[in-house]
Design brief:
2 copies of one chain form a homodimer. Chain A has 2 domains: 82 residues, 3-Layer(aba) Sandwich (Glutaredoxin), CATH 3.40.30.10; 112 residues, Up-down Bundle (Glutathione S-transferase Yfyf (Class Pi), Chain A, domain 2). Helix content of chain A is 52%, strand content 8%. Chain A is built from 8 helices and 4 strands, in the order βαβαββαααααα. In chain A, a hairpin with a 2-residue loop joins strand 3 and strand 4. Chain A is globular. Chains A and B meet through strand 4, helix 3, helix 4 and helix 5 of A and strand 4, helix 3, helix 4 and helix 5 of B.
Chain lengths: 205, 205
């Protein structure tokens, strides 16, 4: 049995979409940020980082979107990772960039307190975040295949992640029309059954 | 043929150690930050992100430490990834945490200009970075196996990365003695042939 601890406004939507793509049974557990449920002792016992997603698997607990996705593919859906080692590496190159650069740039809009203590610093970060996030999106716009998926002609683990994070850009009032490839990818993903299912189940805002 | 574009003070040392662990032939190319070589047009043509590492492979160019490591293991050394899917996922959980949390916390000590524009904001980030980095190290200290490697009894891709980034902590005057498991891991890794070879070749400061 799989249990996904998630919040529909957070990056945990990516894991939910992959669970839906693989048509797996799973139990969703809402981590309600409005009552700081991510810091409740029972949750911290599962995930000391106090973040989502957390996936309970038959083998134990996993955190980090990239690790959860690669695990789900390895056990339940190897077709979500390219057979070719170089194309698989390009997929992971995209995944690491999304995790460590694009999402980090986005997080500075809202989570400056992670990295600085003064309100003026937070305001500075909030003001700059739309620019750094747009620069990251411009890099992806020019670098990925969009053929029509991020890496080639089949959906891989990179696609749901790219879809969710690109969607976050609109929260920073970034106009996605300037990125036609990413915009087309948004439409393509938005119409997938798995994304509709994740939304219907409340896994994605 | 493999060509690694690197700087001995940067995270590219991780890829160099893995190349040495696998005893692969590779050509190192120094990206000299003192002359901003990472922004030279020829380098940006290879890696538009202007960062290291960049690995040229027979199939094309790869960036992002995590993608390069997984590629090298897939093609040349599958023993560096646990056979068990859950243990492999724990390895990648560690790798994503190193890339997207620990390294990001460290980067705020020196690279505040990525995320804010005011000098006061950079000073704020620099002051906080030793605390956020120490908190990340404390999490890893309590979470990993250290048996004696990060994930179990064999070296995996997570180990060289953990080794190099933990070493960076001393640049922020963090006393590693408070983390006995990480300290023992530093000693274990420091005495490996691959680490000595990487240092001898100027791949690691």
């Amino acid at each position: 049995m799989l249990t996904l601890h998630h919040n529909p406004f957070a990056i945990s939507a990516v894991a939910a979409i992959v669970l839906e793509e693989l048509e797996l049974d799973y139990t969703p557990v809402l981590v309600d940020f409005r009552v700081t449920a991510q810091q409740a002792p029972a949750y911290l016992a599962l995930n000391p980082k106090g973040r989502v997603p957390t996936l309970e698997t038959p083998s134990g607990v996993l955190t980090e979107t990239g690790a959860i996705l690669d695990y789900l593919a390895a056990v339940h859906g190897p077709h979500l990772v390219p057979d070719d080692a170089f194309q698989a590496a390009r997929m992971r190159e995209t995944m690491y960039y999304l995790a460590a650069t694009l999402h980090v740039n986005y997080a500075h809009a809202l989570r400056g307190a992670r990295w600085a203590d003064a309100e003026a610093s937070w305001a500075d970060m909030t003001a700059k975040a739309p620019h750094t996030m747009a620069a990251s999106l411009a890099y992806l716009e020019g670098h990925l295949d969009f053929a029509p998926f991020a890496i080639g002609s089949s959906l891989t683990l990179a696609d749901p992640w790219l879809f969710v994070l690109t969607g976050f850009a609109t929260r920073l009032h970034i106009d996605l029309a300037q990125f036609p490839n990413l915009s087309a990818h948004q439409v393509l993903m938005n119409d997938r059954y798995a994304v509709r299912a994740a939304r219907t189940k409340g896994m994605m805002a």
